[in-house]
Amino acid sequence: MNVLVINAGSSSIKYQLIDMRGERVLAKGLAERVGIEGANLKQKAGGKSFEVYKEMKNHVEAMKVVLAALTDPENGAIASMDEIGAVGHRVVHGGEKFATSVIIDEEVMAAVEENCPLAPLHNPPNIMGITACQEVMPDTPMVAVFDTAFHQTMPACAYMYALPMDYYRRLKVRRYGFHGTSHRFVSARAMELLDVPKESSRIIVCHLGNGSSITAVKGGKSVDTSMGLTPLEGVVMGTRSGSIDPAIIEFLMKRDNLTIDQVTSVLNKKSGLVGLSGHSDMRDLMTAAESGDEDAQLTIDVWAYGIRKYIGAYAAAMGGVDAIVFTAGIGENNHVVRAQIIDGLGYMGAGIDPAKNEIARTETDISAPGSPVRVWVIPTNEELAIARDTLGLIGA
């Protein structure tokens, strides 16, 4: 079966077509500027690159362009839409209603709609992607895979905030966590690689990219994670502040006469790495630090220090740790910051081999010889995880 994986944003549709017989990517692409002047689609299939510049007024029109590209006689991957057996959709927020992936029906759509207040920037575009696919592919079964689902195994002591209980009971204010599909995929692979019983394994997954999160996985289940009600909480990120004293919000509003929307924009889009240094990309940040930029070096130190604190906290929460795993853009590709994060964790038995760490870009054990806590680089593959869930629910 071929599974089409869709990740819809407010003005984009990212997609992959995967042949599940060998888990082989047949095509991948991105439709950008949907609903905006200058819309375009870029696709790679069969070693060929393909570009389309065409107005896409909405997600329905964008999906028609996607399907036309996939079935293009010269540059496509399939002969017709009939070769797409199912569609798997990334949905950011499933709230408390979804602990697993589900086949999409009217009841599921209503529940995703109900969760829009919890993810106002993400769930509405996800819904647009689903409805667009339903309109242009009405007979194709579809599955929703939720970023939050993996973290629904957290105990109440980990997900509850110390706010008036009414806010939880009435508004469902609690920690939900994100990047769950990535954390599930990577931790499952780590359990296969570790020489410990799966049911008692203790793994800390560091998903480090422009958006970053840390998750404690015990016996294959998420027991704590750094992101909270929204993806703003947790470690320092590319443009997001991560966890701060909440009183800072009121302080900034009063001192600089800002609205709540303006402060929220600062915390989400103008803080983190870019706020401290002017650089949101770790590569640019490291280049600046190497040239003597003190702010850039301080920013890297703040970032790594915060991640190291989470690792220590989650080791304590699980009563120890068997493996620390790096994944996502920075985690998979930047050996310098991996070393800086692990430095100082020797007290818990974690150390890395500098030579292995320096060349690791694919799945690699970078642990120091004899290190009781293994350190791994394991590339994530959220699209494949979504496709696997879709195949599992729809069947061959």
> Helicity level, as a percent range?
25-40%
Q: What percentage of the residues does DSSP assign to strands (E)?
A: 15-25%
Q: How many domains is the backbone divided into? A: 2
**Class by SSE composition:** alpha/beta
Q: Classify the fold: give the CATH topology of the largest domain.
A: Nucleotidyltransferase, domain 5
Instruction: Report the uncertain regions.
Output: none
CATH superfamily of the largest domain: ATPase, nucleotide binding domain
Distance between the amino and carboxyl termini = 6 Å
What is this entry, summarized?
A hairpin with a 4-residue loop joins strand 1 and strand 2. The chain has 15 helices and 14 strands. Helices cover 38% and strands 20% of the residues.
Describe the protein's architecture and organization:
The chain has 396 residues and is α/β, with parallel strands linked by helices. 38% of the residues lie in helices and 20% in strands. It is built from 15 helices and 14 strands. It has an 8-stranded mixed beta sheet, sandwiched between helices. A 6-stranded mixed beta sheet has the order 11-10-9-12-14-13, sandwiched between helices. A hairpin with a 2-residue loop joins strand 10 and strand 11. Helix 10 crosses helix 11. It is globular and about 60 Å long. The model has no long low-confidence stretch (mean pLDDT 94).
